[in-house]
Design brief:
This protein has 372 residues and is of the alpha/beta class. It contains 11 helices and 14 strands. A 7-stranded mixed sheet has the order 6-5-4-7-10-13-14. The protein has a 4-stranded mixed sheet with strand order 11-8-9-12, covered by helices on one side. Strands 1-2-3 form a 3-stranded antiparallel sheet, covered by helices on one side. A hairpin with a 2-residue loop joins strand 13 and strand 14 (355-357). Helix 1 (40-48) packs parallel to helix 3 (84-99), helix 2 (55-80) runs antiparallel to helix 5 and helix 3 (84-99) packs antiparallel against helix 4 (106-121). The model has no long low-confidence stretch (mean pLDDT 95). Bound molecules: 5-S-methyl-1-O-phosphono-5-thio-D-ribulose.
Length: 372
Amino acid sequence: VNEPLFGTRVKPIDAAPGRLRLLDQRRLPREETWIDCDSAEATAEAIRSLAVRGAPLIGVAAAWGLAVEAGRLAGAGGRSGAAAETLDAAWESSADRLAEARPTAVNLRFGVERMRAVFRASAGAPTAERVALLEAEAWSFEAEDREACATMGRHGAAWIASCLGGDPTAPLRVLTHCNAGALATAGIGTALGVVRALSAGRPVAVFADETRPFWQGARLTAWELAKDGIDVTILPDVAAASVIASGRVSVAVVGADRIAANGDVANKVGTYGVALACRAHGVPFVVAAPRTTLDPACPSGRDIPIEWRDGAEVLLLDPSGDSRLSVAPPGVPALYPAFDVTPAALVDAIVTEAGVSTAPHAEGLARLLALP
Ligand code: MRU
């Protein structure tokens, strides 16, 4: 049962024509409950509230949410006899609102714009046909993400093995931050896809940064790795630097929410500190992300919008759960920039499904984006 897999038992999305169900990640690891999203607004709310999260997954969820929305509007319009232009305008404004549900992960916008292109290209076609086209596009988008994760896993595992050298079957200790796993994608994950690919060939032990305040590492990364039988130990975020300094970490592998054209990487807040500690102690720092996370329209990390969430989430012991227990004295505020930017110079490799970029990343990423 505990055999390492180059696959996963974890699947956070269950979508098919006319149906979108999302695993409510706020409830993990306590319980596995699902949310039925019957509209774009319900999907946007699931994204805003972090019921569904992780850059690639929110793009896929949004794509399905817009297919479901087209079916909903078609049903409502058919009953009221609304004109096609009215339906088009309603769908377009749902798409705009969905794209704005969260600002940093560019995959969300990518998913929405891909659906918009199909919607516009099918203008004038019978409504049922347009709904079917949108459903087909959401299927393909989801399948492409699943495939990208598997390919990224292979590329990342090969790059790490050759970077570290030595016995390719020797045990490895991988540090990761946040959750860039199956729970953040439609497949085996980005960073954790690389971990799963590595663990198919050698013993791998993972240090999962707990990732305050939403605990994506302690709740989600630990849950999904344990479910797949991969060795995982939770590390307080504040211990990452000293554990890296102690020589206990072979490589750090993280995901990304947006990567600028120059290779600067926006990821969950705390990632920058991990990268600094890795560079200071000669530990390779690897980012794994599909090409839907690359944003050539952002020249550098300064251009990436960083989401600031409510400081109240920092003050609660468990902002994802029912407990309203605060860790701070009443009236003292907190700041919560949810992401930070790691400069390209600290990133040893950016692994995508099209291959691996090494410094200088501006050229490396341009080359990967130009590939078919
Ligand atoms: O706020 P979240 O949980 O949606 O944050 C996104 C992430 O999970 C990470 O930053 C991750 O590394 C990128 S998504 C694979």
